[in-house]
Structure formats: C-alpha cells, structure tokens
Amino acid sequence: MSNKKEVLMAQYASDLKVRFGIHPDMELLNKVAIALGPSIYNADSSRVSGSDETELNRVKNNFLIKKLGLSDDPELMQGIHNVMNTYGATNRNKYRAVIYYMLAKHFKKESAF
Asked: Which end of the chain is more exposed for a tag (fewer CB within 10 A), N or C?
C-alpha cells in the first residue's frame, strides 16, 4: 500500500467482508470515502460511536437526510441500529465510511454518490 487512503480502503473492505459478509463494490466505497473528505484521516471523526445517541442522530440528519435525501422517519434510526448491531457492539472501530456505505446500500441510495 502506497498511501494512507489505500490502507484505509483495504481496512474498510476487510471490515465489510469480515463483519458484514459481503464483497464490497470498491467503486462505491471509494466514492463514499471521497465524500467524507479529510475526516477519514482523523482518528475521532473517522469512526462512529454506536452507543452515542447524539452521534447516531448526526449520522441520521447529516448523512441519511441531507446527503441521501431521505425523509425523516423512524426507519432511518432502525437502519442505523441494524448496521451498528451487525458491525458488532464490542467492536470499538466502527468506521464512518463502512457505516455510510452500508446505509447507502440498505436504503438503496447508491445513486447519491
């Protein structure tokens, strides 16, 4: 791996394979990472805390509603919780790019990228 982004992309792909049992669409994963900008390189902003309701609401409002254009609905938070549960409650490194990728897939909004 020649740069930080490639290392991160390999980690994201590994998480998707190991934790979610899927072979990721690397083009979509790359678009999600690009959309996240420099935040993927920051230890704090590159991860999402599954136990922090404020953080989960931020994912709902800033990503699902603003970025993906979904309507505010209880299904949004249920989708977030489903992804978080699959990622694993004991896993402390829940990458934002992986979560956003899974949410885009879950809500069939890949076209937003």
From this structure: N
Instruction: Please report, for residues 28, 43, 76, 80, the alpha-carbon distance to residue 95 in angstroms, rounded to integers and kept in the order given.
Output: 15, 10, 19, 13
Query: Tokens 């690397």 sit at which residue?
Result: 26
Query: pLDDT 10s per residue in the chain (113 long)?
Result: 459 999 999 999 999 999 999 999 999 999 999 999 999 999 999 999 988 999 999 999 999 999 999 999 999 999 999 999 999 988 888 999 999 999 999 999 999 99
- Cα(95)–Cα(83) distance, integer angstroms: 11
| Cβ–Cβ < 8 Å for 29, 9 | yes
Q: Closest by alpha carbon to 19, among 59, 50, 63, 64?
A: 50
Q: Contact, 99 vs 20, CB < 8 A?
A: no
CA–CA distance, 71 with 22 (Å, rounded to integer): 27
| pTM metric for this prediction | 0.95
Are 50 and 89 in contact by the 8 Å Cβ rule? The answer is: yes
